[in-house]
Amino acid sequence: MIIELDIKSSSKKFSVNNVFCIGKNYVDHIHEFANPEIPKEPVVFLKPNTSIIKNNGSVSVPELEGKKISNDLQNEVELIIAIGKDTYKVSEEKAIDHIFGYAIGLDLTLRDIQAYEKSKGLPWTTAKGFYSSCAVSEIVEKREISNHSSIKFSLDKNNDRIQFGDTSLMIFNISKIIHYLSHIFKLVEGDLIFTGTPKGISTLYSGDKLCAKLEDLIELNITVE
Ligand code: MG
Question: How many angstroms separate the alpha carbon of residue 46 from the centre of ligand 1?
């Protein structure tokens, strides 16, 4: 299945390959948990690209045998990097050249399941990669962003601002993330990279309306089912 995203002000489409995610990349978010620890290297996990939902889509907690598997679905608004060309072992200086554009997204998380997985030393795949866990807006091309080191984004829940982010506050900035991932994996055209959430995570309930914004360029509206 090919997942295609719209590109703002273009008739072309962006075909998604892998979805990488960086965890624990903002100090204020790390302090929302017990035993906060600043990572020395980026924390990396993946979501299946079939977990993507788009603007005006809805997120729901999976059900197994008629019962929801989690009671704690949470929001994480994040800037997304869209990779524009295949990239293996790129320097920090040249990293920006490999970006096609940016999007705004929600790394939707089953926090109770993640806490259980963390406590047992298990992978986070169920908590982070379930179907509909990956909300992604249209893509804005790189040239529309004036200052790559301070991109601002936000999340409103039911018209209240609950998260505000500025990429200048990242522990690992955009160039460092691309440099790191390109040395350990391989980045290819179509990859998306979620870059971490600032503080403001919260439990979501059926009927909640989420509106994520990337500067004044893009909006992503998602409903909780
Ligand atoms: Mg996240």
Answer: 11
Q: Enumerate residues 6+ apart whose C-beta is below 8 A from 112.
A: 70, 71, 72
Give the pLDDT band (50/70/90) at residue 1: confident
23 Cα–ligand 1 center, Å? 5
To 5 degrees, how large is the angle CA 60–CA 63–CA 64? 160
Q: Which residue has the tokens 């970006």?
A: 99
The pTM for the full model equals 0.97
String of DSSP letters for 143-170: GG-S-TTS-EEEEEETTEEEEEEEGGGB
Ligand 1 centroid to residue 33 C-alpha, Å? 13
- Decide if 48 contacts 3 (C-beta within 8 A): no
Task: Look up the domain containing 124 and give its range.
Answer: 3-224
The count of domains in the chain is 1
Look at residue 34 in the predicted model and tell me its pLDDT.
87
Is 210 exposed, middle or buried, given 0-12, 13-18 or 19+ CB atoms closer than 10 A? buried
**How many Å lie between the centroid of ligand 1 and the Cα of residue 1?**
25
Query: What is the domain-level CATH number for residue 44?
Result: 3.90.850.10
Reported as a single tens digit per residue, the pLDDT across 29-67 is 999 998 899 999 999 999 999 999 999 999 999 999 999
